[in-house]
Amino acid sequence: MVRSVLTKWAAGVGTAAAVALAGQPPPTGITIPQIPVPTAGATAQPPSGPSSSEPEITLPSRTQLTIRVERDGTLSVDESITVRRGGTMNRKAPLRIAAGGDRDRVYRVRDVSIEGNGSAQATADDFSVHTGEGKSVLRYKVDGAVIDLGDRQEVRWSIASGWDARMGLLRASFIAPARPTKVVCFGGAYGSTTLCDDARLESSGITRVDMQNLNAGDRIDLVITLPSGTVPANARFEAAKTTVSAFALTPFAGFGLLAVLALLLAGAALLWAARGRDAKATATDVGKVDVLVRDNESVAFASPDGVLPGQIGTVVDERVDAVDVTATVVDLAVRNYLWIQQVEGDWQIMQRNPADHALTAYERAVYDVFATPQNVSTLPVALGPIRAAMYSDVVAREWFKRRPDRARSLWMWIGAGLAVVGAALTVVLAVTVGNALLGLAVVIAGVAVALGTRFMPSRTKRGGVLVAQVRALVQYLRETDPASIPANDRELVFSRSLPYAVVLGETPRWVQAFGVENELYWFSGGHDVPGFVNALDRRLQTPAAK
């Protein structure tokens, strides 16, 4: 028995000598643990520490690592991972570690390769490994593990972290160009100061680590102290990725903000130019627009360029409103297509003469609502088809380049989409690479586009001229003296002008000026024309008319 023990001790001494000859002699001043020699007759005991032969592994996995510090400060890691039949092991280890003082220590893993049943990849923020049953050999290099601490250097690396399953046994060996002066190994949950089961510096200068029964998510941090100047230091620190730092104004974020600002300014300039042309055309003095046509001693009303009241309302405010439909109903009655009768506090509308080719598409849509007589209070009108016909009409007459409602909707969706994309981009950038200001810039751009929607549809030059003529029409409605119109023509002039007064908000003044007290040729049962206009307008604004 004594001879057997002495033989093992001699083998250990031989190993130390071989390592020394390989270029790693122990530096002076370092005490090498001595191996006690048993006295004659003593019972030999096996050396402390785990046996060189691995025990039978019944737990889910085991891994064995060799970590070498290269002359350039890089860590070269070879890791043999064995997973029992039917099992898998997955690792996701962070490469940014909080170092205190709002700083992160940043590692870089590169040259990743794996042999066997597995895969591995490294990004700027984490290192991921997947292994299946059987044995896989993982190799990779680590930059950023060595830091200068004045009179010494420190090598730190998490040799195990982020595994998603329990690990039965981990063994590691650490080799450096110079003999370590201190070894510290922490094992267990993140943040704990529990020491590893066994971490020792052997007489050969090799550091050995053994750890059993690591739970899922546990880590092993190995910290090795080396003499100063052993290898080039390569530790890298960056500002911690906090919410504040993610929104810091970096050169890259500043360039992106300038680019987004330039695009917004360019879009605003184009919109301003388009609206400016529109405003200029609108403000153009078209001179006096005479809407009263005189033939000998008779006087008749004629709208500028034959424009209809519903068309005026749509062109002026760029949308189809209930009042545009109300004015169209009155106009169809004045032109003898409809008949309006006041009955018991309500008004009934019915068709009077058949429709003909003189009606536009949107007028025909309004006319068809009254295929059967309808009371204003229960009018079941749906404005959708009428609106669509009115928008199509103003585009066909070249007062708009495109339907203003669709232009507004398109830009609203574009703005909302930009804002949503910007919000998502902000979150992604904030939790990854930073520069979250770029995402906020996109959000602002989206909100600006959405808010600017009301300015998007611009009239054509022809539409601007029409609006200028409408100003003259308003002046006519406000200043016309009924006494200047022959008595025989007043009812017709009043009636033909009334739909335009309705759509331009001049109904009370126009009715008051003419003093309507008798029945009109298109309105029977009373003379409360303002009451009818207000009742129909309110009805067309109810949800039932949408």
What does this protein structure show overall?
With 546 residues, the protein is an alpha+beta fold. The chain folds into 2 domains: 61-239, Immunoglobulin-like, CATH 2.60.40; 284-401 and 458-545, no CATH class. Helices cover 37% and strands 25% of the residues. The chain contains 13 helices and 23 strands. The chain has helices at 2-21, 243-246, 251-283, 309-317, 322-334, 361-368, 383-396, 404-431, 437-451, 461-479, 487-503, 507-514, 529-540; strands at 61-69, 75-83, 89-94, 96-100, 103-106, 108-115, 118-122, 126-131, 134-143, 146-148, 152-160, 167-175, 182-188, 198-201, 207-214, 219-227, 236-239, 292-295, 298-301, 338-343, 346-351, 374-375, 523-524. Strands 6-9-2-1-12-15-14 form a 7-stranded mixed β-sheet, with no helix packed on it. The chain has a 4-stranded antiparallel β-sheet with strand order 10-11-16-13, with no helix packed on it. The protein has a 4-stranded mixed β-sheet with strand order 22-21-20-23, covered by helices on one side. Strand 14 and strand 15 form a beta hairpin. Helix 11 packs antiparallel against helix 12. It starts with a helix and ends in a 6-residue tail after the last helix. Residues 62-224 form the DUF2207 domain. This is Putative membrane protein DUF2207. Residues 35-58 are annotated as: Disordered.
